[in-house]
User: Fold these one by one.
Assistant:
Number 1:
Amino acid sequence: MTFSTKGVFLLIERRDVERMAALAHLHLKESDIQQITLELDSILEAVQALNLVVTDGVEPMNHAVPLENRMREDTEGRNFPVETATANGPHVVQGYFRVPRILEEE
Amino acid sequence: MELHTMTAGELASMLEKGEISSVDAVKSCLDHIAARDQAVGAFLTVLAEQALQAAEQSDTRRREGRALSLWDGVPIAIKDNLALQGVRNTCGSKMLEHYIAPYDAHVVTKLKQAGMPILGKTNMDEFAMGSSTEFSALQVTRNPWDVERVPGGSSGGSAACVAAGEAPWALGSDTGGSVREPASFCGLVGIKPTYGRVSRYGLVAFASSLDQVGTFSRTVSDGAALLSAIAGSDAKDSTSIPDAGPDYASAVRRGVQGLRVGVLDGWEQDTVLPSVAASMQEATAALKRAGAEVTTVSLNLLDKAIETYYLIAMAEASSNLARYDGVRYGLRVDGTDAADMFRRTRSEGFGQEVKRRILLGTYVLSAGYYDAYYKKAQQVRTLIRSQFAQMFNDVDVLLTPTTAATAFRFGEKQDPLQMYQTDYYTVPANLAGLPAMSLPFGRCEAGLPIGLQLTAGALQEPVMLQAAGVLEQVEQDRRGSYGAV
């Protein structure tokens, strides 16, 4: 269990922050982890205020406007040429995005 | 009169009469950018050559009687998260510093179809996450009213360039107040339309259920005109509303006879600057004099809107920003394997505030916390929308301050929560998908502009423009000037 500078129990701990960083593919500097943990904790503490609102049986709102699927005819359209679509690629070889090895060798 | 201090409406009228050319108007803006922007820092990219070329084409069209719109030849600036083909679209981030947009955003296509030369792309908080533009990874933007102060954010560059006379009007984006708050800090009219009124195609996503393109202008009429120019359905945005919308411009001079204006019960107890409170009182009195009925309304979930907003916005941001992996575009930092490359790219490419939001968004969407945080916020969002819907049975438009205080100094808000609190009055409209606008009304003791906010029911932009038109008249009668410094 981690305690804040105020000596109170934290809602989020260092290992949570490390786990989130791993999930989000972010590397945090050792010196930043403590500060970020405290900042995220204070934000989470503030949002606890929502627990005061009774929401039993209330539908969660996913979007600002009621949405329906928009269907269209399955017709041929215009697309970017490959050169345009890949023009911003950091490493493009013959129209393909080149990335470092993903699979381990057998 | 110098062209760069004119409103878009005045420029359009002079262009129509042949008193000036579009090249004159664009040159005047470019000269002013050259003279002023070193100090203000509004633009990340200035498109001098392209804007002049577009102006020449506009002048030819006007000479041949083929003007594309009333606004043909009136220059404009756009926020650097709106794609403009062939031009970099940085979002104020190192991640996209060298990214060149391969297509035009829907709103950019609309501007081009109306014949407006685009002057350049403006600075912003990284990925629109911020309320001061201090989180831009690329540049500092200063408030033209006082360069020691922030212009507001996240569309700080768009606000600053219009206030500095570098452009007659501009586009920004508003996820939780990113048009209205900088408009308020810079003494401008800023409009966030109803969610879906304007297509988001080509607007780089931050929080998709909240993002909306909005306008900056020196007058309400210019704002209404620019909204008309960009509104309308778009097959490429499945959330865009099929109908193009009413005539916004005519609403501005319609008056407020019989209009029901709501003010929040007990707003005087809110911690607003005394001068902001005085502006509220004056505005209420002015609307009454003009024939509006002013009544007190209550929205008791308003003080939960910030918490609701930040949970939802961070969750959506963490999901939207997962696309920046160094594979197809943007920054890549090489690593030992793909996972290492993702991690290095994202760690170097994103700034601190963006990382904070991604981490918290990941947390509230993760197993075990989803219901407690994310779902809870979505439920409160439903209740906030219902409260607004109920309130709009009794009133046509809600009047509040845009921000509790005027523009703050650089570095003044170090604590993230303190910065988020700046958006107290602005986030509710995004949560409920409602149209809202800020307009300048009064000044604080330090001489900085105060912004008041009008919020209307869904698709009711004209009603809010009616009230804004009346308040603007009062403000112009006592000041005799527009929002340019």
Number 2:
Amino acid sequence: MATVELHKVCKRFGSVEVLHDIDLALDRGEFIVFVGPSGCGKSTLLRLIAGLEDITSGELRIDGQPMNDVLPAKRGIAMVFQSYALYPHMSVYENMSFGLEQAKLSKAEIDRRVRAAATMLQIEELLDRKPKQLSGGQRQRVAIGRAITRDPRVFLFDEPLSNLDAALRVDTRLEIAALSKRLPDTTMIYVTHDQVEAMTLADRIVVLNAGHVEQVGTPMELYERPASLFVAGFIGSPRMNFLTGQLAAAEGAATYGIRPEHIALSETAGDWPGQVTLTEKLGSDTFVHVAADGIGAINVRVEGRCDIAPGTRVFLTPDAAAAHRFDAAGRPIVRAAP
Amino acid sequence: MRFATLRTLGFYALVLVIVVQAVFPFYYAILTSLEDGQALFEVNYFPATLNLANYRAMLTEGVFGRQILNSVFVASVVVVISLALAVSAAFALSRIRFRGRGLLLLTILSVSMFPQIAVLSGLFEVIRAMGLFNSLWSLVFSYMIFTLPFTVWVLTTFMRNLPVEIEEAAIMDGASPVTIIRRVFLPLMWPAMVTTGLLAFIHAWNEFLFALTFLSTDSQRTVPVAIALISGRSEFEIPWGNIMAASVIVTLPLVALVLIFQRKIVSGLTAGAVKG
């Protein structure tokens, strides 16, 4: 059953429409990621669900009840902010209990909930500290803890990892994934511009572009069957190669897309001859940039180490079964089943 | 090496000039207040005598004690009311979007541009009409014309720099606007409030023109006017010793306040550095 439903939701700031007719239905307990480039409206959409922005037109329902005019605190949601937004003058305990106090819960119940959340996140020994005495990762946990104590139906995350350094980001990502397993009835909505976070965390991904929903689907659906040129370019790292011109026309498409991992590289024979311009060695993989004759720049992903020097002549062979073809409007051309 | 020494010397010489220029008048007032009779008119730069007679005279004779209490009352009430109004106004001006917000802010600022003397006669009529003439409330009322624009403007700027997300977190936590101001903003704004409050206090404490105009009896006067009106036994005698003793007495509370709130003031002046 759907917990969060949006019907034809629009948002205008003055005369600028930033979200156009958004229709979504999120199931209970699902981990949903809103992903898209900056300015695509993903944070605004999250803030509409949170109630921090008014909905211009359309309807938002949570558990079947209309929520358009319900106060944020009464929607059964909790939010983790990008900058954590802890109250700097309150201790960790007070930060976590503030919302419960506002909800007029009993002292004993507040204490029970704060301690339960602190235990779950392993921050019991930090309860007396002030936020400025905490590291970035600890602040993040407190912010999540504050949200957990509210026992929400829907958990909202607004780019929660963007202020952490790279190593901590991976750890925290795993913790958030574990958290959603521990709270199976809580729907999670997570906003990010990082497609790796989206792919690793999501049950389903919502790709947004310029205020429209481009595609909704599981990470693998988006990877294997992108519904548009935009999704194809956004999901997957490194980016899919897009080839136009004669080669695409020969395939009956306006754009021919092939992922770097679906191209075989050979020094002796292949479909597309070309010259290596640059190699990026990551250890586990090597990204080889090739200027293919008469085709253009192509990025190839080679597993493991690859010591080809720039300037070397190479041959590329695409895996035809994994190729994507798009028409002039950027829609995929579905290959007839063989 | 020699050049460096010279530079250090030059630096401290300049510091000395500034310190002397700022401190000497006050030092000379203290010096004068401790002398009496003819000793007053001999120029000296170190205390020759330590005579507290002038202080004793000021505090025991006449109504000077009462006048200090008048000043304390007026300045404190002005600070409390100004801050209370300014915090709520600053919240609206910095956080609530409404039509004419920028214009309103500019209007508030421009009010404080009028010289006191320009509004004096009009204000006198208003105060008479309100029946406040020769009442301390006339000063509370008129001082706020000048303290409010300043406190509102500074607190608005300060509040704008507080992260919006903290307020949004409080909204998500179910806090009402009043609770947000009281439990979230006020604790964060203490440095700014102490700084602006102190400046408002000093302004109200030192104000002369309105206090001279709106109060007519000795027992109602505030200290700046009282000091100016201290007279000697004859019209040819100006009791410098008493005047200086009174000046020192009324300066001390300000010095004490500044010392007490020193650290808050420093953090209030670096207001932009608030971090979420």
